[in-house]
């Protein structure tokens, strides 16, 4: 996992390798400072030699300047390497998600993917910087400083041999106890993001039903859960600092006591004792840094595993080795199709579907809620793969096509219409980036959208807010239909996408379809029979199976489900 994540550094690997080099040079100069200070005290001050004071004083300044230079360089390269690593990691995760099918996305959930792209990447970035800088500096400083103390006074070095194992054992115990809590924290982040996203997306519904208190309570519950987990983890890790301080003070007292005795006995000079004190601080500070690195690694280990899950996820929609790159026509064939969202043959959304649609036909699809109307049409552009059987477009199994070619041939206007932040022109050009202004106006007239766009002060340059919140549901639907038409598709799928427009506008859109795109295969999912009664063929779905197929007149004469829907709507219209 570490190797896989580190490979994301790519062009920043040079900075990642330079950082430890500069850190080692910085540590090398840092450990010389106490030694030079000892020489200055012993030969210069105690020896009353001004020349030695100047000599070792200049050496001290030069060494300190070098340490500063290497420290600045290591800080800069570490920052560049970690920021670049995080940039590449976010890039790779985002691009990986673009290849996911709806099944893959459902496996993680939107909120979880957002958390992994933000919080988890930040944690891993911080650890990456620590690993290239602090994780190199702390152990190396610890070892070199200990060796220097050992060379100055083996007796005082024994003090650290007692303290270091105690601290190492303590840190290990704390990390092992804290790690499971940090894992739970990041899962709770997913829940929190999900609550916030759901609330913001449905804020109009929340306010219209006066459910602010309920949403606030829901948020407070998840937030409180995160607070409790963080507190529990931090309470465990809080023992680290007092333990470190205890070790520092104990070491200082023991060094002062035994060091003074050694100085009096003539076995240690004053300058050497001063150096030992400095090296002790370096050793103990290194231990504290090691503890900090271990805490950060504990937190980021959970994040790294979550990121690796996304990068390791295998998209269940794969392209063939030699894909077909041309769709001959808009004909569609379903042959013994079974489909399950969970890939479980015992939990089928569609079962035994056989269907032939000729190129250029207009096909209506009718069925009750949960009859799998949307599931049926989503198999055509291969948003999902069939569990059994096959779906063919233009006489070729959709699994044999290049995905981009197939989806460029099929235009879908889904139940949940989505517009993006930007102008109306920018949203329409999702259908064709090179479309002229005249083409935009033409398709908008076909979709009956030009009539309301022309009333806006800025016309086609009107800015659409996030999610299309500044246009009505019917206006949003017509813009999405115009965007789909701009693709000049061989197959056009309207998934209940005229439900928010009046019957007159609905009829005008259907008339434009018949006259302007006669060669395009049109599949219209609708709740209103008036929207599909003039179709070449109408399919009635019931519990994931085709209950009947025929024209309006044929179904009205033979199919009970169709009759019930038709007469209930006629009765409702009369009332």
Looking at how many chains there are and whether they match, the oligomeric state comes to single chain
What structural class results from the helix and strand content? alpha/beta
Strand content: 5-15%
Number of helices: 20
What is the CA-CA span between the terminal residues? 66 Å
What is the mean predicted local confidence, pLDDT? 84
Rg over alpha carbons: 35 Å
> Spatial order of the strands in the main sheet?
6-9-10-3-11-12
Q: Per the principal axes of the C-alpha atoms, what is the gross shape?
A: elongated
How would you describe this protein?
It is a single chain. The protein has 575 residues and is of the alpha/beta class. Helices cover 63% and strands 10% of the residues. The chain has 20 helices and 12 strands. The strands form 3 sheets. A 6-stranded mixed β-sheet has the order 6-9-10-3-11-12. Helix 2 (13-45) runs antiparallel to helix 11. The mean pLDDT is 84.
Task: List its salient traits.
about 575 residues, six-stranded mixed beta sheet, four-stranded antiparallel beta sheet
Question: What topology emerges from the helices and strands here?
Answer:
Layout: H1 2-6, H2 13-45, H3 50-98, H4 102-108, H5 110-132, H6 134-152, H7 154-201, H8 203-208, H9 212-237, H10 240-264, H11 270-312, E1 332-339, E2 350-357, E3 362-367, H12 373-378, E4 388-393, E5 396-397, H13 403-409, E6 410-413, E7 422-423, H14 424-428, H15 437-446, H16 450-453, E8 463-464, H17 473-485, E9 491-495, H18 503-516, E10 521-525, E11 537-542, E12 545-550, H19 552-558, H20 560-574
Parallel strand pairs: 3-10, 3-11, 6-9, 9-10
Antiparallel strand pairs: 1-2, 1-4, 4-5, 7-8, 11-12
Helix pairs in contact: 2-3, 2-6, 2-11, 3-5, 5-7, 5-11, 6-7, 6-11, 7-9, 7-10, 7-11, 10-11, 15-17, 19-20
């Amino acid at each position: 996992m570490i190797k896989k994540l580190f490979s994301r550094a790519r062009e920043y690997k040079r900075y990642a390798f330079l950082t430890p080099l500069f850190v080692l040079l910085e540590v090398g100069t840092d450990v010389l400072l106490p030694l030079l200070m000892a020489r200055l005290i012993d030969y210069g001050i105690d020896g009353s030699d001004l020349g030695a004071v100047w000599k070792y004083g200049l050496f001290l300044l030069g060494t300190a300047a070098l340490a500063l230079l290497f420290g600045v360089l290591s800080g800069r390269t570490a920052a560049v390497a970690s920021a670049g690593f995080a940039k590449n990691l976010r890039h790779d995760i985002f691009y990986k998600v673009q290849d996911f099918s709806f099944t893959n996305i459902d496996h993680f959930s939107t909120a979880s993917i957002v958390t992994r792209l933000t919080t988890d990447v930040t944690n891993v970035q911080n650890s990456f910087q620590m690993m290239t800088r602090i994780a190199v500096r702390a152990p190396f400083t610890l070892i070199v400083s200990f060796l220097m103390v050992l060379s100055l006074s083996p007796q005082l070095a024994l003090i650290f041999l007692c303290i270091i194992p105690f601290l190492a054992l303590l840190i290990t115990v704390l990390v092992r106890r804290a790690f499971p809590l940090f894992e739970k924290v990041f899962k709770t982040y997913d829940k929190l993001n999900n609550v916030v996203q759901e609330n913001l997306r449905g804020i109009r519904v929340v306010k219209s039903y006066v459910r602010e208190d309920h949403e606030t309570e829901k948020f407070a519950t998840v937030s409180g859960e995160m607070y409790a987990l963080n507190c529990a983890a931090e309470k465990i890790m809080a023992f680290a600092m007092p333990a470190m301080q205890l070790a520092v003070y104990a070491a200082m007292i023991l060094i002062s006591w035994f060091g003074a005795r050694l100085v009096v006995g003539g076995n240690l000079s004053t300058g050497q004792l001063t150096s030992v004190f400095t090296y002790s601080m370096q050793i103990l500070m290194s231990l504290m840094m090691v503890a900090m690195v271990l805490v950060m690694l504990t937190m980021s280990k959970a994040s790294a595993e979550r990121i690796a899950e996304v990068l390791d996820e295998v998209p269940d929609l794969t392209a063939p080795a030699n894909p077909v790159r041309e769709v001959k026509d808009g004909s569609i064939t379903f042959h013994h199709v079974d489909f399950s969202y969970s890939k479980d043959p015992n939990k089928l959304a569609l079962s035994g579907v056989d269907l032939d649609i000729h190129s250029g036909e207009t096909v209506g699809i009718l069925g009750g809620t949960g009859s799998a109307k949307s599931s049926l049409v989503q198999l055509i552009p291969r948003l999902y793969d069939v569990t059994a059987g096959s779906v063919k477009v233009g006489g070729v199994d959709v699994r044999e096509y290049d995905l981009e070619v197939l989806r460029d041939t099929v235009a879908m206007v889904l139940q949940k219409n989505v517009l993006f932040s930007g102008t109306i022109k920018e949203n329409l050009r999702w259908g064709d980036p090179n479309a002229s202004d005249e083409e935009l106006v033409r398709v908008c007239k076909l979709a009956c959208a030009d009539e309301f766009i022309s009333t806006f002060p800025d016309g086609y340059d009107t800015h659409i807010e996030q999610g299309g919140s500044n246009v009505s549901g019917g206006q949003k639907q017509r813009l999405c239909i115009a965007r789909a038409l701009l693709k000049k598709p061989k197959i056009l799928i309207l998934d209940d996408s005229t439900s928010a427009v009046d019957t007159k506008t609905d009829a005008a859109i259907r008339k434009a379809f018949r006259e302007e795109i006669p060669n395009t295969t049109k599949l219209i999912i609708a709740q209103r029979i008036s929207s599909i009664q003039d179709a070449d063929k109408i399919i009635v779905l019931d519990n994931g199976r085709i209950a009947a197929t025929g024209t309006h007149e044929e179904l009205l004469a033979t199919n009970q489900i169709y009759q019930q829907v038709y007469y209930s709507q006629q009765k409702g219209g009369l009332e």
